[in-house]
């Protein structure tokens, strides 16, 4: 969309906020519906004009990117899709970003899930990302879909010692011994890095406790924002870094685009979500400032 339209919309938003500030200074209360309307308009503007803001990766996200970037070609990368469609908008962009980064570095991908809904989302990544953007990769040699396995932490307790006991075949019922990717893989401890993605149980915390610690496997979880604070204490000793919520996903997408221009034109849903979120936060913070200014002016007038 036209850049003029963006500036006009932003001018209307912030011009309206200034108007409300003047209105409040005169001692009149602002109807909450006006606040809701401004948040709606700010969000709608960012979505309609596809407004994006540049994201600078924080250290905790950059550590994840740098570790995957520094692994030698052919390293083994396991990604676990431990989430459902309700969590998809927040963490699915992380999964796709990890897949893109792994394949562009020519690493070997192992995809699995501890949640039944994760297998369908894994299939979506394979169809929309791997087959479309990396048509040259070969199933069984460059990536494998192990699929969903019931058992929660029990699955992790088994694969940390022997993959074949839990996964005698892949998601397509192909014997695991006939898949080249497993020629030199006995257990999850043979992975060079693991990306557990989710926000529930079983999820990243269980991966850290039952696989990362006993197997001494580098862990880099992707997390829903609501559970990210619970995993921060594991950094930096038990996890090399983590992606927390849409913000973390957007930071990873941003640094991936900067490093690899080929991804400039591929979808970056997390970056797209940061525009509406940022403008909505600005509006809310503006109203907080307005409320405080009004409060102190009224109190000063009352004490005069």
How would you characterize the overall build of this protein?
There is one protein chain. The protein is α/β, with parallel strands linked by helices. The chain folds into 2 domains: 3-52 and 268-303; 59-263, Rossmann fold, CATH 3.40.50. It has 11 helices and 6 strands. The chain has helices at 3-25, 32-48, 59-70, 88-104, 118-133, 153-159, 163-166, 204-215, 228-231, 245-259, 269-303, and strands at residues 76-82, 108-113, 143-148, 193-198, 222-223, 243-244. It has a 6-stranded parallel beta sheet with strand order 3-2-1-4-5-6, with helices on both faces. Helix 1 packs parallel to helix 11, helix 6 packs parallel to helix 8 and helix 10 (245-259) crosses helix 11 (269-303). The mean pLDDT is 89.
